[in-house]
UniProtKB/TrEMBL annotation, chain A:
Chain's gene name: LOC100791027
Major subcellular site: endoplasmic reticulum
TM region(s), chain numbering: 12-32, 481-503, 524-545, 635-657, 664-683, 703-723, 759-777, 783-800, 866-887, 899-924, 939-970
Superkingdom of the source species: Eukaryota
Residues of the GPI ethanolamine phosphate transferase 2 C-terminal domain: 526-960
Family from the record: Belongs to the PIGG/PIGN/PIGO family. PIGG subfamily.
Xref: Gene3D superfamilies: Alkaline Phosphatase, subunit A
Naturally occurring in which organism (per UniProt): Glycine max (Soybean)
GO cellular component: endoplasmic reticulum membrane
Pathway of action: Glycolipid biosynthesis; glycosylphosphatidylinositol-anchor biosynthesis
Protein name, as recorded: GPI ethanolamine phosphate transferase 2 C-terminal domain-containing protein
From TrEMBL, chain B:
Domain of life where this protein originates: Eukaryota
Annotated TM spans: 29-47, 59-78, 99-124, 130-153, 165-185, 205-226
Keywords: Endoplasmic reticulum, GPI-anchor biosynthesis, Membrane, Transmembrane, Transmembrane helix
GO CC entries: endoplasmic reticulum membrane
Protein name: Phosphatidylinositol-glycan biosynthesis class F protein
Main location class: endoplasmic reticulum
Ranges for region Disordered: 1-20
Bilayer topology term: Multi-pass membrane protein
Pathway(s) it belongs to: Glycolipid biosynthesis; glycosylphosphatidylinositol-anchor biosynthesis
Localization, UniProt: Endoplasmic reticulum membrane
Gene Ontology biological-process entries: GPI anchor biosynthetic process
Keyword Cell cycle annotated: no
Transmembrane found in the keyword field: yes
Length: 992, 234
């Protein structure tokens, strides 16, 4: 029988963890590209030539301008008179451009032509200009709205990093309009309200939640239309119609409801346009109506991916006057969705948003003079050049004279090639040089249409190449990196599985008497655990299973416990006839205690499940926490105090279950009681933590952090040194923590018993302190769940410690892992970022610190998985004497392998399997409709859980190895040859 | 492996003192199972045509029909194969079968609650009726046949080691119903917004499906069992 040595095992596991870490990092940075976004808003500096030294100070002086003053400055700076006064943005969710403009030069189908008579007449007469606007993936509403108003294509991590708000904080048109004092009105999809809270003077948000509703959702928008059109107090009106998207979701492109819905939209366009014309006659206020859709739809009406049908959105510009004639034939031009933002910005004379990658639609500015048109192109180029400077640090001005002012009579146009930096600089310089030269020759300009055209061409070349490069940078996922990352994850997963399989295969010496039991291939609980992991893996492919993951964990956990229950019953004997044997009686006792603790676990688990409804789809159903919150705060506070007291009592009583009572134990019990009483006193004194923030409470929390931390660390460090070695009568005892039958030989190996005792004490201290800390940090409603989790883990220890438990170690550890995950969701966590307790992250922190808040947030969110790892120390202690034979004859490596092998490798492997599979699923689902709302947030949780596994295993390993080294080596060497040798040992250890 | 199994059977046969019922022939098993399945179909048919209710629209009433129709069929059929025929009359077997209904229902009720069935009052009748149906499928045959013999109950339900054809007829459908119910719970969290995803409809479908599959499977086991006994006797 081949056995793997401890060193080899450690090396393999460490290698696997390292590979996993590298693979995960590669994947994350490949999948969520972090592109440098420019923060802040464009101001007056955007009307000046970009310079070498990036202007930071210039912004300051403009920050506190009044809106009117700002508008005047912008007007002056842009040198382009605004073409329109008011803007109506009509968003028709999910309208493919094909319905209005047709495809590839063909007109749209007859039914759709007839459904939109007014719009088609506008297009035919040249009043309206329509474009196919290509949207970027993911073709989902919120990112597309952001792209339309900012001209930027955002990454997922931008969303994730400002998780506490959905508000859109980057530079965008809505904010720019707000800054110049525009009054804005929004009716329609409430996504706008979430993105821009507080910016709209009037609004009526509708929810896209009821997908079956195609009528009411649009009536709720249109009912305001007459009123709004009769008013003239607004400058910017946003109408967002969701009905057409809902029609698509119900019946696809060819749904019978589609033509009536298009007609309804046509009526809205007609109403607005007629109103525009009337306004034009009356008071000369010119209104621009922009009809856009955020994305298209597939034949079946779905969207989210990047097929032509989904990305083919529309952009219709409908002005009061005919646009330049002769363009009606070119109605089917293709632009990009991001081009809408700079075009609107330039038309209305506000700075182009900083992160815009779009290009001005030149047809829209045809009514301007040549000078102004060139100015518009120049402004767009400056903005893009600034963005390029931010993304390409190599685009510096030293190497290339980017802002050289060339006034030579013969402007030099160079052939552009070379690196990206050189190319962009050269293209930009060409355009700028030509433009400057043209401006210098003001007098002879009249006959130089040739010159004008070449400038426009030069600008367009720069703009299109820069825009193309920037958009590719934002959307392209480096497939090589992703594959490399996934490959690394798979390799590490396989290594871990292999290692676990190898140590599982070694039939250990202590199992030989039990060989019969061991050889039997698969027991039902083992099969079920593997099957459960398979089910988890499968369920991760479904978005609703990810949203409702808490059901799965609770279902699996309680089923495992029911199977344990069944197993405990197997050895339960009711027949009195068999009672003559003492051992059977004992067995009966243990199985009764097992059954009762399993019952306790199931019962607590069910309460935990009912505490928070959780998830996404059924959050509004009643649960215990809502019921308690309704009952009132004073009850919650009472319950919190009661559960705190219970945690203290239980922690101390579990500590004293260890029967070798020593002064050390009493001391530790007292210190635990002290810190517990501190927490209790804190709760009494500051009943409402979350509502009131005061200095006193803050100080007391800080003291508590210190007390809990120092006690735990001091005990871990000091305990192995002061644990009494002489425990002669330990074998005669039978008790909870050591009901395993101890053979007589073990008397020779006292250190292992002391090791067991110290680990037991440390484990108790760990989980009790952790629960006290959680009581302090979690919302007060979560006090009972923390208590119940504490009970669950203690009861599991009781179950697994009894002699009769014939589960394999990996089964027990997986069951505990499942308990931890079920508890994670029982504390109100979910796979959306919204459930992270942000308020708790500032408890006891006096000055703002991202690191400390992040740490607290991690502690709060991963409370239960961490509790699982801390309970592993207790588990190691509980299992320590089951392997007396190995411990007696084995060397240190063997002992440590036996103690730590499964407790560390099993969680690592489960996490590795789940993470690897989920990574592959994420890669496959990258075009899924819910990739940004469901799958990506879950991936962040998976990454954080991996970090939690690393930290937890580190704590377990360090604690056990430290205790072992002190007990087996250091203390021996101290007692044998005094201090000198002891220091030699420790120095040797350190060098090792 | 085989040797160990035979070891165990000899051990348990020495420890158990009860008289085993006579082995059941394959055709008899077929009739029993067919009657059970027909009873189920009959209950669905009655609910559907006579009272025009369905599991999806009226879950608790339909479940009530199922268990009330199935109860006499199962009790009367399985009581014929009771253990200890000398001490236990047919009527007594029927009586203990009926007594087993609430006990089995309580166990199934607690089990369902433990794995996450809702506990609010609006679900109480549904859960109770479902538990009664489960009880008819799982524990009633056992309580008719085995009575209160803890060792036999433990052998069949905790250790899954049925011996003899009649115990296969008890053990497999019971496990089939439980496993079917377990799998029936999986579609519940999906967001398809179908009415049958409510508790306990999909679970009941799972239960019935598992039960029916297990009825067929148990027939196979009875056939195999009979053949092996035949060989042994030769």
């Amino acid at each position: 029988m081949s056995s793997i040595s401890c060193t080899k095992l450690t090396l393999f596991s460490l290698a696997a963890v390292a590979i996993q870490f590298i693979g995960l990092s590669i994947f994350v940075f490949g999948f969520f590209p972090v592109k440098p976004l420019l923060s802040g808003y464009s101001g007056c500096e955007s009307f000046r030539r970009p310079t070498c030294d990036n202007d930071g100070a210039a912004n300051q002086s403009y920050a506190s301008l009044s809106p009117d003053r700002r508008r005047f400055l912008y007007q002056e700076g842009s040198e382009i008179p605004p073409l329109y006064d008011r803007l109506v943005l009509m968003v028709i969710d999910g309208l493919p451009a094909e319905f209005v403009l047709g495809k590839k030069g063909q007109p749209p189908s007859k039914a759709f032509m007839e459904a939109m008579p007014y719009t088609q007449s506008l297009l035919a007469s040249g009043m309206a200009v329509g474009y196919h606007a290509i949207a970027a993936a993911p073709t989902v509403t919120m990112p597309r709205l952001k792209a339309m108003v900012s001209g930027a294509i955002g990454g997922f991590l931008d969303v994730a990093f400002n998780f506490n708000t959905l508000a859109y904080l980057d530079d965008n048109l809505v904010a720019q309009f707000f800054k110049i004092g525009w009054k804005m009105v929004m009716h329609g999809d409430d996504t706008w309200l979430r993105l821009f809270p507080g910016l709209f003077a009037r609004h009526d948000g509708v929810s896209s939640f009821f997908v079956k509703d195609t009528v009411q959702v649009d009536q709720n928008v249109s009912r305001h239309l007459g009123d709004e059109l009769s008013r003239d107090d607004w400058n910017f009106l946003i109408l967002h119609y969701l009905g057409l998207d809902h029609v698509g979701h119900i019946g696809g492109r060819n749904c019978v409801l589609m033509a009536p819905k298009l007609f309804e939209m046509d009526e809205v366009v007609k109403m607005i346009h007629i109103n525009t014309l009337r306004n034009l006659e009356n008071d000369q206020r010119k209104t621009l109506l922009v009809v856009v859709s955020d994305h298209g739809m597939t034949e079946n009406g779905n969207h989210g991916g990047s097929s032509y049908e989904e990305t083919d959105s529309i952009a219709l510009f409908i002005g009061p006057k005919t646009h330049a004639s002769g363009h009606s034939s070119s109605n089917h031009d293709t632009i990009f969705q991001v081009d809408i933002a700079p075009t609107i910005a330039l038309l209305f004379g506000v700075p182009i948003p900083k992160n815009n990658i779009g290009v001005l639609i030149s047809q829209m500015v045809d009514s301007l003079t040549d000078d102004q048109k060139l100015r518009a192109l120049q402004l767009n180029s400056w903005q893009l050049f600034r963005l390029l400077q931010a993304q390409l640090p190599g685009l510096s001005c030293r190497n290339f004279p980017c802002d050289a002012f060339v006034t030579n009579s013969g402007p030099t146009i160079s052939e552009c090639k070379g690196s990206k930096e050189k190319l962009f600089c050269c293209l930009y310089l060409n355009a700028a040089t030509l433009h400057d030269a043209w401006k210098a020759k003001v007098v002879t300009r009249s006959n130089s249409t040739e010159g004008y055209n070449s400038i426009v061409a030069a600008y367009n070349e720069f703009l299109s190449s820069a825009s193309e490069w920037l958009s590719h940078k934002a959307t392209d996922k480096p497939i090589n990196l992703l594959v490399l990352g996934v490959a690394a994850l798979v390799v590490s997963c396989l290594i871990l599985l292999g290692v676990v399989f190898v140590i599982h295969k070694e039939v250990p010496a202590w199992e030989t008497q039990d060989h019969d039991n061991y050889v039997k291939p698969w027991k039902i609980d083992e099969v079920f655990i593997l099957f459960g992991i398979l089910i988890l893996v499968i369920s991760m492919g479904s978005s609703s299973m990810i949203e409702e993951e808490h059901y799965i964990w609770h279902f699996l956990t309680s089923t495992i416990n029911l199977l344990f229950f069944r197993k405990a019953i197997q050895s339960l004997e009711f027949n009195k006839a068999h009672d003559f044997l003492n051992s059977i009686k004992e067995q009966k006792n243990t199985s009764v205690s097992q059954i009762s603790s399993l019952f306790l676990i199931l019962f607590s688990g069910r309460i935990l499940r009912g505490w928070h409804q959780g998830g996404v789809n059924w959050t509004n159903l009643p649960d215990i926490s809502k019921w308690l919150e309704q009952a009132g705060n004073q009850y919650i506070n009472l319950i919190q105090i009661a559960s705190c007291a219970m945690v203290i009592i239980m922690g101390i009583s579990v500590l004293f279950l260890m029967q070798s009572k020593t002064k050390v134990l009493t001391g530790i019990g007292l210190s635990l009681l002290m810190s517990g009483l501190f927490v209790l006193q804190h709760f009494m004194k500051h009943p409402d933590m979350s509502a009131s923030y005061n200095k006193d409470a803050n100080l007391s929390v800080q003291i508590l952090f210190a007390v809990l931390g120092i006690t735990t660390i001091a005990v871990v460090l000091v305990l192995p040194w002061i644990m009494p070695m002489q425990t002669p009568d330990i074998c005669s005892r039978k008790n909870f923590y050591m009901s395993a039958s101890v053979p007589v030989e073990i008397q020779n190996s006292t250190p292992i018993l002391v090791l067991k005792d110290s680990l037991y004490i440390v484990g108790c201290l760990y989980i009790t302190s952790w629960c006290l800390l959680q009581l302090l940090l979690q919302q007060s409603i979560n006090a009972v769940p923390v208590l119940l989790l504490f009970i669950q883990f203690l009861a599991s220890m009781l179950t697994f410690s009894s002699n009769g438990s014939c589960h394999k170690q990996w089964v027990e550890i997986t069951a505990l892992y499942n308990l931890g995950m079920a508890g994670h969701f029982a504390l109100g966590n979910s796979n959306t970022l919204a459930t992270i307790d942000v308020a708790g992250a500032f408890i006891g922190i006096s000055s703002h610190s991202t690191f400390l808040s992040g740490l607290l947030m991690f502690i709060i969110t991963y409370a239960t998985p961490m509790l699982f790892f801390l309970s592993m120390v207790l588990y190691v202690s509980v299992k320590a004497t089951i392997y007396p034979l190995v411990i007696k004859k084995g060397n240190s490596g063997e002992i440590l392998k036996t103690l730590l092998g499964f407790p560390c490798l099993v969680p690592l492997t489960i996490n590795s399997v789940l993470m690897t599979v989920y990574t592959i699923i994420l890669l496959l689902m990258r075009n899924h409709l819910f990739i940004w709302s469901v799958f990506s947030p879950k991936y962040l949780y998976v990454c954080a859980a991996t970090a939690c596994v690393y930290v937890g295993i580190c704590i377990v390993v360090v604690t056990v190895i430290h205790t072992y080294i002190v007990l087996f080596w250091l203390r021996k060497s101290f007692s044998i040859s005094g201090k000198a040798k002891g220091t030699w040992w420790s120095s040797k250890l350190r060098t090792n | 492996m085989d040797r160990r199994k035979s070891n165990e059977t000899t051990k348990s046969s020495t420890t158990s003192t009860v008289e085993l019922p006579p082995p059941i022939s394959a055709s008899e098993a077929l009739i029993v199972n067919a009657l059970c399945a027909l009873g189920l179909a009959f209950a669905f048919w009655i609910a559907n045509t006579v009272y025009s209710i369905e599991l999806v629209t009226h879950p608790s009433l339909t479940l009530f029909f199922i268990w009330i129709t199935e109860l006499p069929i199962v009790t009367l059929l399985y009581s014929r194969y009771r253990q200890n025929r000398k001490q236990c009359t047919y009527l007594r077997a029927v009586g203990r079968g009926v007594l087993g209904v609430p006990v089995g229902a309580l166990l199934n009720f607690l089990g369902a609650i433990a794995v996450g069935a809702p506990v609010t009052f609006q679900y109480l009748p549904k859960t109770v009726n479902w538990a009664l149906m489960m009880s008819v499928f799982t524990t009633i045959p056992a309580s008719c046949v085995l009575g209160s013999s803890w060792a036999d109950w433990r052998r069949i339900f905790a250790q899954t080691k049925p011996k003899g054809s009649i115990e296969y007829l008890i053990c497999l459908p019971a496990h089939g119903a439980v496993i079917g119910a377990w799998f029936g719970a999986w579609p519940m969290p999906l967001d398809w917004e179908r009415p049958w995803q409510e508790w306990p409809i999909s679970v009941s479908y799972g239960t019935v499906a598992g039960y029916l599959v297990a009825l067929v499977a148990s027939l196979g086991f009875v056939l195999a069992c009979g053949r092996s006994q035949h060989i042994k006797r030769e």
